[in-house]
Design brief:
The complex is a heterodimer of chains A (469) and B (562).
Chain A (H helix, E strand, L loop, with lengths): L3 H22 L8 H19 L6 H26 L5 H10 L1 H21 L12 H26 L2 H5 L7 H23 L6 H27 L8 H6 L1 H31 L10 H29 L3 H5 L7 H23 L6 H29 L6 H6 L1 H29 L3 H10 L7 H19 L1
Helix pairs in contact in A: 1-2, 1-5, 3-4, 3-5, 3-19, 5-9, 6-8, 6-11, 9-11, 9-15, 9-19, 11-15, 12-14, 12-17, 14-17, 15-17, 15-19
Chain B lengths: L1 H18 L13 H16 L7 H27 L8 H6 L1 H24 L1 H4 L12 E6 L3 H14 L5 E7 L3 E3 L4 H5 L9 E3 H4 L4 E4 L2 E5 L4 E4 L10 E3 L2 E4 L3 E3 L5 H6 L1 E2 L3 H20 L3 H7 L1 E5 L3 H17 L12 E5 L11 H13 L2 E4 L3 E5 L3 E5 L2 E4 L2 E4 L3 E3 L16 E2 L12 E3 L4 E2 L13 H20 L12 E7 L2 E7 L6 E6 H14 L3 H16 L11
Parallel strand pairs in B: 1-2, 1-9, 2-5, 9-21, 11-18, 12-13, 12-18, 13-14, 20-22
Antiparallel strand pairs in B: 3-4, 6-7, 7-8, 10-19, 15-16, 16-17, 23-24, 24-25
Helix pairs in contact in B: 1-2, 1-5, 2-5, 3-5, 7-15, 11-12
The chains are: A mainly alpha (469), B alpha/beta (562).
Bound molecules: flavin-adenine dinucleotide.
The site of flavin-adenine dinucleotide has 34 residues of chain B, from helix 7, strand 2, helix 13 and helix 15.
Chain lengths: 469, 562
């Protein structure tokens, strides 16, 4: 019997090898020595799999680790290029990153491959882990896919994207394109359910998985599979990717919606049929937990909201926010902003109360949630509410840079304050030994792919707009 | 714990300093503040690492993820501001700082991995120093009585003490739930499900040990309480204490009338309310089968002795319940159904002003309740209630709310008591001359420092007294100054029947009394008492019962045979 670690290493090596081969054949723009690419790809896959050790992992979790690892590898490659080309100046790192953008796409796809191969062949039996409920995964994911696809479809309609998709079956009709788009959206949603059902703890982490899954499908879909299906060679260059920036935001928004709805359906299901079972009773019931989390989230948003408002004042954004309620003054804008931030804070409380195991993870979840709201707010909802148009463009992203910062600051402030409030509450609860035990059981075990998810989405979500704009 | 955290932070600082040169090739070459800042970031990161953190890869990725927001804060906001300029939050600014991003990202990745290994290697040095056991044995606080006073004292102590191991709190109660008495009349009137107004003690207390038992003796000299033996613990169990809280409440006072005591229903506990409700239903069933009109009238006559809050609320609820039931018994005559309140004084509801009492009397009479004022219940038999001035009411159901006396156990203690039998306490709620003995609630006679006399025995006071008492116990143990108890009633609310109530409130400034009655007072009663009902789930259950009652008739299922 080969031990799990070796099996996983072999699978990782195989995935690295296949990924390297694919990269050599597919993209336009990788000009390295083929032998070196294959050897280093195989070694990187095997080493990364070894680094994962024998932690319990399924395909979904391994996939996320693969994506995180791919991003780090890409950054390391760019740095190596910078060092070897002798140019130690900050500005040129961006140029190198742009030149090697194709490698980021390629490595991410290799990361996906790694996830599938190492996650399927290197999977370990996990005592006590919940069984995968296929029907629930497919129904919940499919439903989430439909709604996400509908939202994304609105942009596609506006951007005239449907005929392009119809090209897959040799048509140029928008209706055929729309039908195909929904079919794909449902498939991706269902696959999300299958891959991540057992990783998802709550709505918060599911939003993260969804957003990262959206990015992955941008690499995989419009950048790779779409041209391949239409018989063309995929173009992973930065210029081509910049032209698909709208589609990137669309994929991320789609992923966020899928993550959100999937978790809500899943949660509802578990709440109705599992948690309501007296055998699974918790000392602090779901109703009380939800209400107190809402209150704590809203209270915690005050600090982050005020920090964000400093950015808004300095960039003169408050009067724009006031337009949401038909007003124009900055004072009205300030109040609207505080109300919005309290609502988002309350939602953070409900979505993330189970996610952060320590202050570092809390800070990272906060940043991720802030980033998600940058995509949802200033890039999507805000322009739609004010003008009825999608502005998923590089220009809008450039203009939204201060707001990106504001959102990240807000998210971090919110997460830190929420955790402090939660800790105070827990200190009171934990004088009851039963509650401490049940809470510890609920916590995410060490070894989960959360760190990889956080790194991948925060890094790619921040960097890709910078690189492409 | 703190020392451990400091050691972690020190290691984190070292690791941060060691890892930070990785930033130099990308930004701020050889700048000395970089290692310092890296060290600070490392210290903060190490302090936040939980003891059961994951592997090095996990920590590397986590700190790598945090490097991005760190980069934004530092390079885009702090450094430009420190240089006297504007934050560089433009697309151009971000692009210019891209190199530094790579540097900080590698720093983050390295820091997480290195720190993880270093912390693992230094595990022995970092294992928590065994905490010194608290000096001496914990202070044992024993609370007798699981009513408003006892349970609130335990809760407030838990809140004040947190997880402080130097205290040990025990609550002895002969029931396993806290009964919310203001809603008891609604249980008797079949508006609310009985368990919905009781909160389980074990679910609502966090660190208090709950002992189900009946206290039968207190040895003040030996500081020991004995519990009644039962079929599980056949030998009397004793509990020792350092501080004893008497919160035993009151019992009905039948003024030595053994016939009344035998015949009448008490109205203090959940069982009493369930029995009264079932008695009404059983009597309707028997009346339906009864051919003799005299017996039938006797069965449908319900006498409530006492026109105070409890009696009036009960009479109103019973009247509504009984008259509503007639719809299911078409053969019974509405004129035979009668609820009678017998009250010894000239007006009901002595706790409220005369206008409200008159309103309640008029309103309830209009709805069919009969009143016998300036009248006492003298005696009772299975089929009649005898009054003074002499009169006989043919009735098979009598409920007693006409008098209460403090718990009888108090008489055995040898402490000073007032003429009702309540334990005399100081304004700090301490029993004079007995260090570590405290009393509150219905069983205590507490001086009213503001108005003179003693404080009334109501839940409103008991709850506030408990707060002072918990504070004083902690202060007494720590040698701090004790507080005296002051409280002026906020007001009183009394439901008198379907959607109508009387309210007497005191204004916050000036303390003027405001009276009102009717639907608004009733709504206020519901809002206030729902908010006061302990336990969120109980609130939801009661709310559902109230909404159900709007659309469906009250439940007339008989649950116990009498
Ligand atoms: C029907 C009714 C309605 C009321 N409505 C209101 C109202 O609307 N507003 C208001 O302010 N007040 C109201 N009151 C008064 C209020 O209920 C009391 O003032 C309050 O309950 C006093 O609290 P306590 O803890 O001192 O006593 P209790 O609540 O009587 O608690 C005493 C506890 O000690 C337990 N016990 C007794 N003897 C022993 C023993 N030997 N061993 C172990 N345990 C023992 C009892 O089981 C009980 O749990 C109402 C009372 C009744 C009966």
């Amino acid at each position: 019997m080969i031990s799990l670690a070796y099996r996983r290493m072999a699978a990782g090596g195989l995935a690295g090898f296949l990924g390297a081969l694919a990269m050599l054949f597919l993209p336009s723009g990788i000009g390295a020595n083929p032998f070196l690419v294959v050897v280093s790809g195989t070694a990187a896959g095997a080493l990364f799999a070894a680094a994962l050790g024998s932690r319990p992992l399924g395909p979904g979790a391994t996939l996320v680790w693969g994506l995180g690892g791919a991003f780090v590898l890409w950054m390391a490659g760019c740095a190596l290029d910078l060092v070897t080309s002798g140019a130690f100046r900050g500005g040129s790192m961006l140029d190198i990153a742009r030149v090697h953008f194709a490698a980021l796409v390629g490595l991410s796809l290799a990361g996906i491959l790694f996830g599938f191969v190492a996650g399927t062949f290197g999977v370990s039996p996990e005592p006590g882990r919940a069984r995968l409920r296929v029907a629930r995964a497919l129904c919940g994911g499919g439903f989430a896919g439909i709604v996400g696809g509908w939202a994304f479809g609105k942009w596609m309609e506006q951007a005239g994207f449907f005929p392009l998709i119809a090209g897959i079956v040799g048509s140029n009709s928008a209706h055929v394109g729309a039908a195909l788009h929904f079919a794909i959206a449902i498939l991706i949603g269902a696959s999300f359910g299958l891959l991540f059902q057992r990783e998802i703890r709550g709505v918060g982490s599911s939003l993260g998985w969804g957003a990262a899954y959206g990015v992955l499908w941008w690499f995989l879909g419009p950048l790779t599979l779409l041209p391949l299906l239409e018989g063309a060679r995929p173009d992973w260059s930065v210029a081509h990717a910049a032209g698909l920036f709208g589609s990137l935001v669309g994929h991320i928004v789609y992923g966020i919606i899928v993550g959100l709805l999937y978790a809500v359906v899943d949660d509802l299901w578990r709440w109705l049929f599992e948690r309501s079972d007296p055998l699974n009773r918790q000392a602090e019931g779901a109703g009380i937990l939800a209400l107190s989390s809402i209150a704590r989230g809203a209270a915690a948003s005050i600090g982050g909201g005020l920090l964000f408002s400093v950015v808004m004042v300095r960039t003169d954004q408050l009067s724009r926010v006031a337009q949401l309620v038909g007003a124009h003054s900055s004072v009205a804008g300030f109040f609207v902003h505080l109300v919005i931030s309290a609502l988002i804070g309350a939602s953070y409380g409900v979505f993330f109360h189970d996610e952060a195991t320590d202050d570092r993870i809390a800070l990272a979840w906060g940043s991720l949630y802030g980033l998600i709201w940058w995509f949802l707010g200033p890039l999507t909802l805000f322009p739609i509410l004010l003008g009825g148009q999608f502005t998923w463009t590089t220009v809008a992203a450039s203009e939204g840079v201060p707001s990106l910062l504001g959102h990240l600051l807000y998210g971090m402030g919110l997460a830190v304050a929420f955790r402090a409030l939660e800790r105070r509450h827990l200190a009171h609860l934990f004088i009851d030994a039963r509650l401490r035990k049940s809470w510890l059981r609920r916590r995410r075990p060490a070894g989960s792919p959360t760190p990889a998810l956080l790194l991948f989405f925060i890094a790619v979500g921040t960097l890709v707009p910078i690189i492409l704009t | 714990m703190r020392a451990q955290m400091q050691r972690r932070a020190a290691l984190g600082f070292g690791c941060g300093v060691i890892c930070s040169p990785v930033v130099w090739p990308f930004a701020h070459p050889l700048a000395l503040w970089v290692p310092l800042l890296g060290g600070a970031a490392g210290a903060a990161f190490a302090a936040a690492v939980p003891r059961e953190s994951g592997g090095w890869l996990d920590d590397a990725f986590t700190s790598g993820a945090l490097a991005l927001p760190f980069w934004l804060l530092l390079e885009i906001i702090v450094l430009p501001l420190a240089g006297g300029g504007q934050p560089a939050w433009t697309a151009v600014g971000l692009r210019a700082a891209f190199g530094a991003l790579a540097g900080w990202l590698f720093f983050g990745l390295m820091l997480g991995a290195v720190l993880n290994r270093v912390l693992a290697a230094a595990h022995v040095a970092l294992t928590p120093v065994p905490q010194a056991p608290p000096a001496g044995k914990p202070v044992r606080v024993l609370i007798l009585g699981g009513g408003f006073a006892g349970v609130t004292t335990a809760r407030k102590l838990e809140k004040l003490l947190g997880a402080d191991p130097s205290f040990d709190i025990t609550l002895v109660s002969d029931s396993n739930a806290l009964l919310f008495t203001p809603m008891l009349a609604e249980v008797a009137g079949s508006s609310l499900e009985p368990t919905h107004i009781s909160t389980p003690l074990r679910a609502s207390l966090r660190r208090t040990r709950v002992v189900r038992g009946h206290a039968v003796a207190v040895d003040l000299a030996e500081r020991r309480v004995s519990l009644q033996p039962d079929d599980v613990q056949r030998i009397a169990r004793t509990l020792e204490y350092d501080h004893l809280v008497l919160a035993l409440g009151s019992v009905s006072n039948f003024f030595g009338q053994s016939n009344i005591e035998r015949t009448a229903h008490d109205f203090k506990s959940l069982t009493d309310a369930i029995r009264i409700r079932n008695a009404v239903i059983a009597n309707f069933e028997r009346a339906d089968r009864e051919s003799d009109p005299v017996v039938r009238r006797r069965l449908l006559r319900f006498v409530v002795a006492g026109g105070g809050f409890a009696g009036i609320e009960l009479a109103g609820a019973l009247n509504d319940f009984a008259r509503g039931m007639l719809a299911e018994y078409p053969d019974l005559d509405a004129r035979d159904v009668r609820v009678t309140v017998v009250h010894a004084r000239e007006r009901i509801l002595p706790e409220l002003g005369p206008e409200l009492a008159a309103y309640a009397l008029a309103k309830m009479s209009e709805r069919g309740v009969q009143f016998k004022l300036n009248t006492r219940v003298r005696d009772a038999s299975a089929t009649a209630v005898f009054l003074d001035p002499p009169e006989e009411i043919a009735a098979e159901t009598l409920v007693w709310t006409a008098g209460t006396a403090p718990n009888r156990l108090l008489a055995t203690l040898g402490v000073e008591r007032d003429k009702r039998g309540a334990v005399l306490v100081e304004a700090t709620l301490a029993v004079a001359g007995h260090a570590g003995l405290w009393a509150l609630g219905d069983c205590a006679s507490i001086p009213d420092l503001a108005a003179g006399g003693t404080l009334p025995p109501t839940a409103q006071y008991a709850l506030r007294e408990a707060e002072t008492l918990a504070y004083n116990i902690r202060s007494a143990v720590r040698g701090a100054t004790l507080r005296t108890f002051h409280f002026t009633s906020i007001g009183a609310l009394c439901v008198i029947g379907h959607q109508s109530a009387c309210a007497e409130l005191r204004t916050p400034l000036g303390g003027r009394k405001v009276h009102f009655s009717g639907l608004f007072a009733w709504l206020m009663w519901r809002v206030v008492y729902l908010a006061k009902l302990p336990g969120f789930d109980r609130k939801v259950r009661v709310l559902i019962d109230w909404v159900t009652e709007l659309y469906f008739p009250r439940d007339t299922v008989q649950t116990i045979e009498l």
